[in-house]
Design goal:
- With 140 residues, the chain is an all-alpha fold.
- Helices cover 61% and strands 0% of the residues.
- It has 6 helices and no strands.
- The radius of gyration is 36 Å and the shape is elongated.
Length: 140
Amino acid sequence: MLQTLINRGGVLCLLLVMAGCSTYSQPESEPAPPPQPTAPAPQAPAPPQPPRPPQPPTTSAWKPLVEKAQQARARGDYEQALALLERAQRIDPESAEIYLQLAQTHKARGDISQARAVAERGMLFCTSSSQCDALRAFTR
């Protein structure tokens, strides 16, 4: 009796596995006709957007930080100057002027290799030949 139960259970498992492995294909039928293009419903033109107020330049946000950093560098407080310049850089990370100030501060601190690295990165963002020349001077 136990043997019969095991045999029937085995056959049932085999049938389930075979059923799970089989693929089902739908009967052949004619493909659906392609949808007819419909003309888009006429839409009313969107109302004109009011002009946006001009955004203040980001330089107005970081310029005071750069000025304070220059004062700190002049009195020999390089750590304070670097902290201020890093804050300015978070405001405008693509400002070549900030990179130039960072390079000057690192050089004044005696860290020539860091000044060179900062200047090389700043050259990616320079917009005038004077900025590029000033940054290039640190890479030599």
